[in-house]
Specification:
Rossmann fold, GMP Synthetase, Chain A, domain 3, 3 domains, five-stranded parallel sheet, 15 helices, 26% strand
Length: 518
């Protein structure tokens, strides 16, 4: 079941695929592609230069790049050099970048030459690595040329095998509830997702050509679009960023067999490409979703429109992505995120007592297994709070049926307590998106003088459509208890989300004083 031959050092995987598929395209983007043979050489050469620049074991290399082939090369080279890869969003602000560079203690930063002035400016007030490598030659920035470093090895440097059990990646959380935390992950933990989930459950293998619109600095992309192709010998095409029109054009060109994305991306593809029907996904054998809750209605409509299975699951950065997964075939329960990934143990407990709840009752989902993070970087207090007696407390609310299928019902910290009664935002959101005029929505709790909290709904409408608050409330009243009906409904242009699709509810609360109720 678990394909343990895929859980080996990164250098071994690179050499293995270079021998098996020397001329096969491993990764591609809109500008270039690289074969497995070329990838083996480029990562080896760059890794020797990392060591020549003084990178020590467990030294950190910051990847401040957009989605591209070079991103993959830097990531794999950092681990091959026995260092740690630290992905940073290319759209991050100077202060956000500076925080990650200092928190991870990065010795090297790799970015585009257009960011050289930004780094120089940042160096006046915050920590910036002295060793800077640029895509493109940048003399003014005092950096090294990326292509030159990949072309030939550093003289006199030999590489020791990388260790799959030490921290090799620091992936920062979305920061939806506070300052981002650096999640320390090993290669073993991340490759387990491939060996126990993507490969055996979804059939991910060398026959696949993956189309990934996912942001590469998120753990979902790191496992499914970076490490999984390497482990299995598949090919991956990475989009520089998600664009629904570009995604549709690529799908129309054919040749892709597997598409991972977050629910919001699939939602926009359905809206813009639905008229093309089954033709659009004619070559695709499977789609998979993670990062945020996939509404059962969206999954059903997507499958009916395009004639391709949509397999969703539940993942979290601290567990190296997937914790549960649905399996292809007819035995799926609408709204459920599936069964536990093989090798992982899950419990649903009463948050107050830590005692397991009966089947069907709601509680906090906790997990343990080989994918568990090593901890939060430089944050032992947060680590001790999250991992108790070996169990990671996800903060997510869930319930399990008697067959073991898990359904995520909301976030423990996001539950709205109205007059002593609990409201799960996800339940209200799924009800509201059933309205034809609604394209997207989010529900948050707002303080109330007498009830403690009440629900506010923020709604994005389809272009040219209109909707009244009374209509929304009436629809909710048809299927929800009275206390769950939103107190206010506000129309906005866009729901703020992270790159992995999670709603940034704190930003919506900031709108309360600046918006007028509809």
């Amino acid at each position: 079941m678990i394909q343990t031959d895929l859980i080996v050092p990164i250098a071994e995987l690179l050499e293995r695929q270079a021998q098996r598929f020397p001329d096969k395209v491993a990764y591609s983007d809109a500008r270039r592609s690289i074969t497995y043979g070329e990838l083996d050489k480029a990562t080896h050469n760059l890794a020797t230069h990392f060591r020549a620049f003084g990178l020590k074991d467990n030294g950190a290399v910051a990847i401040w790049l957009p989605n591209c082939v070079e991103w993959v090369i830097v990531c794999l080279a950092a681990v091959r050099a026995r260092g740690m890869a630290v992905p940073i969003s290319y759209d991050a602000t100077g202060s956000e970048v500076g925080y990650r560079l200092e928190d991870a203690g990065c010795a090297i930063v790799v970015t585009r030459e257009e960011r050289a002035p930004v780094l120089s400016e940042m160096a006046d007030s915050m920590y910036v690595p002295q060793t800077r490598i640029f895509l493109g030659t940048d003399q003014a920035g005092g950096g090294h040329d990326f292509d030159a470093l990949c072309a030939s090895p550093a003289p006199g440097v030999t590489l020791e095998p990388d260790d799959i059990d030490v921290c090799s990646y620091i992936v920062y959380t979305s920061g939806t509830t506070g300052r981002p935390k650096g999640v320390m992950l090993s290669s073993r933990a991340l490759l387990w997702a491939t060996a126990a989930c993507w490969a055996p459950i979804l059939g991910y293998g060398e026959h696949d050509r993956v189309l990934s619109p996912l942001p590469m600095f998120h753990v979902f992309s790191l496992t499914i679009a970076v490490l999984s192709p390497l482990a299995t010998g598949a090919s991956a095409h990475v989009m520089d960023r998600f664009s629904v029109h570009t995604a549709i054009d690529l799908l129309k060109s054919g040749g892709f067999t597997f598409v991972p994305a977050v629910p919001t991306m699939f939602h926009y593809i359905l809206l813009e490409g639905g008229k093309l029907g089954k033709e659009l996904f004619s070559g695709v054998r499977l789609c998979t979703s993670a990062g945020a809750i996939m509404p059962a209605s969206l999954s059903k409509e997507f499958e009916e429109t395009f004639g391709v299975e949509m397999i969703d699951g539940y993942g979290i950065t601290e567990m190296s992505t997937m914790v549960t997964m649905n399996w292809p075939g007819k035995y799926r329960f609408p709204g459920s995120c599936g069964l536990p990934v093989p090798g992982l143990a899950l419990r649903i407990v009463n948050p107050a007592t830590g005692i397991d709840v009966p089947f069907g009752d709601e509680g906090e989902l906790i997990a343990r297994g080989p994918t568990l993070m090593l901890g939060y970087n430089r944050n032992p207090e947060a680590t001790a709070q999250a991992i108790r007696d070996g169990w990671y407390h996800t903060g997510d609310l869930a319930r399990s049926d008697k067959h073991g299928f898990i359904t995520i019902t909301g976030r423990l910290k996001e539950i709205i307590i109205r007059g002593g009664q609990n409201i799960a935002p996800a339940e209200v959101e799924e009800t509201i998106v059933e309205i034809d005029e609604v394209m997207d929505c989010a529900v948050v709790g707002i303080p109330h003088d007498t009830l403690g909290e009440v629900a506010y709904a923020f709604i994005v409408l389809h272009e040219g459509k209109s909707l009244t608050a009374e209509t929304v409330k009436a629809h909710c009243a048809s299927s929800l208890s009275v206390y769950k009906i939103p107190e206010e409904v506000r129309i906005i242009e866009q729901i703020p989300r992270t790159g992995s699709g999670k709603i940034m509810r704190f930003k919506l609360r900031e709108l309360i004083d600046s918006q007028t109720p509809q």
